Amino acid sequence: MNRIAEATLADGRKIPYVITDNPPRGGMKYTYFAPDRSYVVQFYNDPSKVDRNMTARLEAIIGRYNPTIPESKGGAVGGDEKLAKYFAERFCWPTDLVVAPEIGIVSPAYPKSFFFDEHASKFLELKGKDKKSNWFTSGNRRFLNKSELGDFRSMLQMSLLLSRSIRRLHQAGLAHSDLSNNNVLIDPRSGNCVVIDIDSLVVPGLFPPEVAGTRGYIAPEVLATMELDRNDPRRIVPGSMTDLHALAVLIYEYLFLRHPLMGPKIFSAESAEKDDFLGLGEMALFIEDPKDSSNRPVSLKNTIKDVGPVLEKLFLRAFAEGLHDPPLRPSAMEWEQGLVKTWDMLHKCSNPDCEKKWFVLYDSANPVCPFCGQRIAEKNVVRFELYSEVRGHSGEWKKHSEMDIVNNTPLFKWHTHSNIFADEKADGTMQAYACCHNGEWFVINTHAEGMFSPQGNPVPEGQAIRISDGTVFRASSDPRGMVIKVRII
Ligand SMILES: [Zn+2]
Question: Most exposed: 173, 179, 366, 478, by fewest CB within 10 Å?
């Protein structure tokens, strides 16, 4: 029988929740819903573990480290209304501490798009289940209807959003500590993701939570030292370095739909547990390791090469150089920047049956979709090389990045200014766009200030310049404005 109960919050307010017989239960907590399901009230499975340190940590997470409320309202330093709103969609961040009937937390309910609806599967009853990542990155995919699966572009977008969320945590000195496929919900249809189970965050100055971690996402050094005594200084506990391992695993899974370390190699014939313990811990080996192919599956249709040189390098740092050397792992910001650069190299596959629909065109001499083998339909690839002036060296330019252009490709401030990065703070107003008309290419200025034609004439808003192979034009006369060189390949 369901009945309404009341939770008392730390500030004295009382809120209702519905007690059910078998509340959903995770590793740490169980969950009751609000009568209107707009929030959840969660209590701990083992209340004896709730101590003063834990409540102090929850208070810090809900208050001064909270990026989902503006600094002016007691949230994280540097956050305004706009940023708070942005991150409120990226995290399911606890809103209140419950003090009675026992210690617990209140969190917003996940947005509807992160629950399966009745159209999700022909084979399973999934309606109402939350969209944990591994529904989409494991063999479970085969149970889902095609409309749920998204495409390569939406997986790349989720990788980018997740990197940004983790970068935000790390910037504040926080670490998630239990990042895994269970704690990130994804919606490949829209390319959105949300990080959940925020209450296990590692907060500066307070004792970290005792998190066991999740198989496949625990960093090798944590697994390898797990059996040491709690007070042994060699024991490594979860923190931002170990988040970076989990983040790289999730990105690899989103883009390749497989785990980066689970290959055919047998690490111990003694038992499956020992094999797992070594193969994901002390002896972990990247399935695409460039020097040691002993864990490489026989058939690897697509590899890290197929997602372009920027991501290839990051994956090598995460899983070859940095697998057992945590400081070498790419930071969340490096992933974010690499994914933004890769986004600009995406091409739509012209094969209507291509499952991935988009691919990274890294080899312009061989413009083929690596997923289905389709050669690109466009006659030529139009590529913009973006150059920025070296600071303090007037007239000296270095390549900033590249982007591929199709009809109506927009240029944003992060394409026209070298000091603007495509993050949550960036101005998303289109500055210009490229278009193809009767076989000729043009760039139309919509908002860029100080755009100049190849001949050095000002190009005011609403005016266009014609471009062809070798054209060089100034996107903005700002000191940090980019110069763009056009290549038609
Ligand atoms: Zn294709």
Answer: 366
- 192 in a structural domain: yes
Q: 3-state class of 487 per DSSP?
A: strand
Total domain count, the chain: 3
Distance (Å) from CA 368 to ligand 1 centroid: 8
Average pLDDT over residues 314-327: 97
Would the pLDDT of 1 be above 70? no
Each residue of 162-186: pLDDT tens digit? 999 999 999 999 999 999 999 999 9
* Contact between 286 and 314 (Cβ < 8 Å): no
Residue 376 has pLDDT above 90, yes or no: no
Same domain membership, residue 469 and residue 431: yes
Q: Which long-range contacts (CB under 8 A, 24 or more apart) does 7-14 make?
A: 7/41, 7/98, 7/100, 7/101, 7/104, 7/106, 8/98, 8/99, 8/100, 8/101, 9/96, 9/97, 9/98, 9/99, 9/106, 10/59, 10/96, 10/97, 10/98, 10/99, 11/96, 13/96
pLDDT in tens, 109-155: 988 899 999 889 888 888 888 899 989 998 889 999 998 899 999 99
- Going from the Cα of 375 to the center of ligand 1, the distance in angstroms, rounded, reads 8
Ligand 1 center from residue 299 Cα (angstroms): 19
71 lies in the same domain as 138: no
